[in-house]
Amino acid sequence: MIHILLHFVVPLAVAFVFYRSRWRYGFWVMIATMMVDVDHLWANPIYDATRCSIGFHPFHTMPAIVLYAALFVFPLVLRRSAADQSLHSAAFVIHLVGLGLLIHMALDWIDCLV
Question: Radius of gyration of the chain from Cα atoms?
Fold first, then answer.
């Protein structure tokens, strides 16, 4: 139960600390990334408390995590090369999606250690 709670508390804290002017928007975009758990529906059984999600479910594999990292970093790299230092709306969403997915994977990985 704590694991599920962390999937809400951590994005809320990150949104509030790092995206304070748009923390509500950032929070809801990162919460939407929990849809990544749809890949649990393809497993049998759907839920297994002893199973490590990382490396088992298709959207929880290392190639997927590398893609999530790219989604997080790419808008920042584009911003750095542009004269305008603010993230445009679409780039901001992509950045937040990548961040939300990385947070999700990190929290799922912590469960694998316990």
Answer: 15
DSSP conformation class of 72: H
Cβ atoms of residues 99 and 87 within 8 Å: no
Cα–Cα distance for residue pair 14/107, rounded to 1 Å: 13
60 pLDDT higher than 90: yes
Q: 71 and 95 in contact (C-beta within 8 Å)?
A: yes
pTM for this entry? 0.91
In the chain, count of helices (H) and strands (E)? 4, 0
Residue 47's pLDDT is 83
Query: Please, is 39 exposed, middle or buried when counting C-beta atoms within 10 Å of its C-beta (0-12, 13-18, 19+)?
Result: middle
Neighbours of 10 (CB within 10 A): 16
Which is it for the CA torsion 100, 101, 107, 110, positive or negative? Answer: negative
